[in-house]
Specification:
Chain lengths: ~750, ~700
Amino acid sequence: MLKRLMVICCTAVCIILTSCSSKLSHKDPPPAIKFNASDKALTSFSGEYEPSQPPEGMQFVAQKGFVAMFVDTTTGHFAVEDMRNKKMYYSVPADVDSDSIAVGVNWSVLRSEILVTDVNEEEISTRIQNSYDGCLDSRNENSFVKVKIVDNGVVVGYRFGEEQYDIAVSYTLCEDGFRATVLTENIEEKGDRKVYGISLLPNFGAAKNDNNGFILLPDGSGAIMKFGSSKNTYSAFYSPLYGNTYITSYDYVSSRQEDCLLPVIGIQKDSGGVLAIADNGDAFAAVNATAAGQSSEYNRAYFSFELRRQQEALIGNTYAFNTKTVTVFEKGPINTGRISVRYCLLDSTAEDGLAKMADVTREYIKSVTDSDVSAGTTSPLYISTLGGFKTRKSVMGFLADVTEVTNSFGDSLKMVDELKRIGISDFSLIYKGYDSNVINGDIGDSIHIDKAVGKKSTLLQISEKLGSGKLLLSVNNVIFENKSGGFSSQKAGIKDISLNRFAIKPYTKHTFLEDKSLSRKYLTTPSLASRLLIKINDSLKKDYPNAVILLSDYGKTLYSDFKTMNGFNRMQTRILATQTIKSLSGESPVAAETASLYSAIYSSILVNTPGHSSGFDMVDEDVPFYQMVMSGIKQVVSKPINAYGNPRDEFLNCIKSGMIPHYELIYGNYSALKESRLDSFYAADFNNWKDTLLENYSKYIELYNKANGKTITGYKSVAKGIYLTEYENGIYTLVNKTSEKYSYNGFEVPPMDFVVMQKQV
Amino acid sequence: MFKKIISVFLVLMIFLTAVITVHADTPYITYEKSKWFNDLVSPDLFVPVRQIIASQTGTHDFSSPEEFCFDKDGNVYVADSGNKRIAVFDNNFKFLYEIKYLKFDDGSSDDLKNPTDVFVTDSGDIYIADPKAARVVAVDKNGNVKHQYTKPRDEIFTASSFQPTKVVVDKTNMVYVVCTNVFQGILLFNNDGEFMGYYGSPTVSVSLQLLMDRFWKGIMSKEQRSVMSNYVPVEYSDIYVNNDGFVYASIRYTESYKEQIRKLNYLGNNILPYKLNFGEDEIIDYKRDKWFTKFVSVAVEDEFIYALDSQWQRVYVFDSNGQRLGVFGTNASQLGGFLNPASVKVFNKRVYVLDKTKSSITEFQSTEYGELILNAVSIYNKGDYEKAVSIWEKVSAMNVNNQLAYTGIGEAKLMNGEYKEAVKYFRLADNQQRESVSFYHYRSEIMRKYIVIIVVLILLMAILAMLLTNRAFLNTIKRYKPGKGIVRNDTLKVIVSVLRRPVEAFNELKFKRYSNTSLVIVILLIWLILNIAKRELYGFRFNNNNPKEFSLLIQLSLTIIPFVLFTVSNWSVCAIMDGEGKYKEIVTYTAISMIPYILFLGLSIPLSNILTLSEGMFLSAFNAVGILWTLMLLFQSQRIVHNYSSLKTIGAAFLTICGVAIILIIALLFFSLVQQVNAFVESIYSEIVFRK
């Protein structure tokens, strides 16, 4: 009997412990990194094709789909041919010797297939090696390039004799292009220098300024750098994919930039183009581009990958006199898994290149989506509101952190009624600042309505009034302040390379230095973030079955956790995030803010989508590439229009980009936001925007009814400030962002306005 | 109706003036400054439209361009220093021609050596400052030299060389030249090239640091003096002449961070109403690097002043009074960002910034929000508050943090006699002066409305006062004996007697060896509570405490800590000066002496809520009575408790204050040491972790 009791007790304790650990654990092992080796074409094609004669010095290797490959076995240079139009693309430009600008290292870089960033950790010296100087033209007798022909392609071994490491890269054909894969498991380092980064095919598809083409960069909504214009005095483009890597806490941040949300780069020539997709190891990738005139006569764009990480760390604290920064390196073998870039060849022109790149990217997204995604309810208008925020207030003479209510549930109910009364009948409401955990900067595993903002029953009433799927409840499960809903912030937060807790520093807008008056923020460990999100979603589904979960920070914050036990690298975090969102999306739609590809795949509603690029000097024009890719498969919602200095201009930007307009509104205590130090909702007075909202809604609804859910098949600027967007069903919009009226094919567009047209068959 | 027409007109005007906006997500965050916060996010005031690089306009790229200017037709002249030329473009930035060579009347010619500034008069004369050639020349478009301005031979020109870096010309053809290493002011030439003297001579601002350095220099050797920095007047970094003939000047930095932007009248005096810091407050980062605003260029259009800061690489916009309207730009390789901004110009309401490193000119245009602010300020500064209010309301709706809008609305409400509303808006604007004026009217209105009740209240208070001075009434009260408590009836008697007859009362207390720890605690607690209450409840007009910052430590350091320091120091000092007071007695008598101050402190809180700023002297006088009364009691208590003469009491008080200072220094050293040890341990820990 006693034995039985003991067994029961032990079992009970075990169950409790297991359930506790599953509830709180942030020690789950990282997911395995699988290699995506799909080689099916992302563009439709038919027929049989014949390869052309090999270029001089090269031999035919293989052909697949409409692509043929040729290689020079002595140098490792290769070429691929789009057999549909007989266009040849080279790993090193065919006319490279005609370049009159590149000298020194730049001359060698132009003749290289890979660039390697290596580090001597003892000497703390970083160098960038190129495969031409390091393997082909090295004085070291151990240096060489070795080409091995395999099925569908070649494997090229690069031995950097002086640096004493070997890197093997395979170039294998897909039906519509080829894939370059760094066989990271085969990298051998025998010397003091360790491989920290690799840039793949920096010259592939490079084009001179005599071409009438462009480079597409996935910066924000998308940006194009046109060939032909001089940009000598500007810096080259560099931006890590999916935004901040959260490895170093910067001490000074002076500008804001959009993130690169899609893992693609496009190069469009006069005719024919290439779309490069970082399809393995994308979380370690960065987008690079240089303009003709900067280092050579070629416009170039390529991906670079970080194989190991390094970090600037501070020794001493801010009070110490001898404070200094040191570089700390990630130890151990490379654990990125294989990294690869897929190059899709396009039969396109400068006119339709952008649309074809969008088509291929869309097909790529479909190809990596392996389960159904709930479509979600559509709305022609999104309104964000803020329940409340944390502020310091005097209570009996002492300051205390209290919730300042801006739009209580009661206020929102009135706002919904008022909007319906004035004729805005169909819209979705995004609720922020309603959860006490979020308001207090904590993280939790369920929805906790802040009592000051309202009652659960009122929120349910709002949800009912709006209709199913039209209430979006914003959740935060990644970024938190000091407390963390019962979790120790030391355990809940990720660690940096130096094993210190990583902190996000708040910055003052006027000095760009850390704002000591605001709390630092921390990032939850990837496994904890995933668990919390699943639990929050369960709680949301149970209590608010008609509401949709909106991932406020989960879909756009990608980081590594350098804990010694069960640490996650950025790729593992990305895989887990995608898996987690996938598990949520099976039952009901998921909305995500500023979603990168990895989170957009299984999300139905993409909120706060950037309408512009970062505007880098090198870039000539913003294009709505992200919107074009997502059109027809997701709902793309703009950033809040009324937060801009030119709200009318932003509304027109929504029209030209095919985005659903989004406004921030406060019906209740708007003046409470004064000096709140929030970065949003400073222009959200309901009474001020009511009329504009109605006017824009009435005008937009026509376009929405005709084009909602349709794919954008064309976008171009027909004149300065005039934009034409075409949908798959023959609907056009013509947006006039100038101060003069504009006539187009018999249609007259008033200044700062737009018209919707139907293509005449 | 009129209001509506005006607002419709203004909105239409905004839309008509809006041309093409290319980029809206700017690399910078536009921010507002409030009384308590320096960085409240706001919509953008200006957004970048385009970036012009020379090679896209029909000529080769600029090389280290230093300056540029517009002529009256909008043609652009760039001092392309690295290329030793003046490049000229039409108003759409299409390259027209360049000036590289100068042709003199005598048939000789010369190259431009290193042009750093260019200015074009309405008659088309092009003035070029060329410091390497030590001259300013006025040329026509073909490079024919009309006038030449070289090193003045006047004895008041004491600089060793003549390196003109900036030049402007006013309507009367007077030429203003800024020279490197000339600290006496701007050099003024007439049109014939004759040196007329200095203009707008800056002065060295007297600061504590300067006085200290003067003192040290007086006792130092020549060698020691030579390594100390010299105080010289500041150099102007840029000058600008507007159509009214006023010269605007910018200064890279001043020791006191004041008057970095100046508007000089014909006498050279600064007549800009605002004379404080135009940029950001100086900050020192953890690397001990100093950061402060460095204005390198200034331009004016209509009544708005645009100043370029090279430190944080931003353009500041001020109104004609020097009031900041907004800030835009940042350090970035993005459209709207700068790497090394050298000059700002305004033409047709568009702002242009020349960047030396990018070798480009960035064009900005105002947003709907910016246009609203500029219009509102323009109308407001003309005194037409009524007309401005509808625009201010729009501004306020677009940005809850805009203080100017609240002031604008407040002024209109004040003018319309809506005093209560005016008070509300001026409070939102943190504008104490104008709130005080509104409150004065509002108070009069209330008084008129409730005059009967006020009179009745005054009568009641008079009756109460009479009762309190009535002996029979007081005797009735005296018969009341409260039970045991912390403050007993006899304690109240002690307090009253000290307040009425301090010398007698303290002598009696000394005789009885009276001390009461409970009383001390109660007094100190009341002091602390009233001090906190003063911080929170003091009238808006007199309250300069940040409502969102509170530290109990600061409150303690203003009340209980100085009390403890004083009593401990006094006890220590008097112990060696044959003082007879025991610590308990010192504490008790000092606490009792504090009572008048605390009493007046408490009464000043309601008073501060009903007085206006102009009546502030009554509040000061009221508080001063409390302080003086306490000081008097403190003096008597010290004298009696230690049995000192008056002179010795003064001496002991002085030494007590010195003692407090010594205790503070020791505490400071101790805390500093703890901090350094902490930092040292942290550094060691970091080293170990990083090297693992």
